[in-house]
Amino acid sequence: MTLRSLRARTLSTTVNIAEYASMNNGVLAALDKGVTDLIIVDDSWLAIQQSMG
């Protein structure tokens, strides 16, 4: 997935799912650009916990 391939989608979803998807897309975009160190700051405890497994 490249940064250019990310696009907004209109879906019926929750805020938690949207925050998780946004965080995932950001991480994928960073990896696509070759980023090796990344700090994620978010106010959603649930999204952070989901991303950690």
Structure description:
With 53 residues, the protein is mainly alpha-helical. It has one domain. It has helices spanning 15-32, 45-51. The model has no long low-confidence stretch (mean pLDDT 78).
Strand content: under 5%
Sketch the topology as an H/E string, one letter per element.
Answer: HH
Helical stretch count? 2
Biggest sheet architecture: none
**Radius of gyration, whole Å:** 12 Å
The mean pLDDT is 78
The span between the termini is: 21 Å
Overall strand count: 0
Count structural domains: 1
Helix- and strand-based class?
mainly alpha
Q: What would the principal axes of the Cα set say about the shape? A: globular
Low-pLDDT regions: none
Helical amount among residues, as a percent range?
Answer: 40-55%
Features:
53 residues; mainly alpha; 47% helix; globular; RNase H type-1 domain-containing protein
Describe the structure concisely for a colleague:
This is RNase H type-1 domain-containing protein. With 53 residues, this protein is an all-alpha fold. 47% of the residues lie in helices and 0% in strands.
Question: What's the arrangement of secondary structure elements?
Answer:
Elements: H1 15-32, H2 45-51
Helix pairs in contact: 1-2
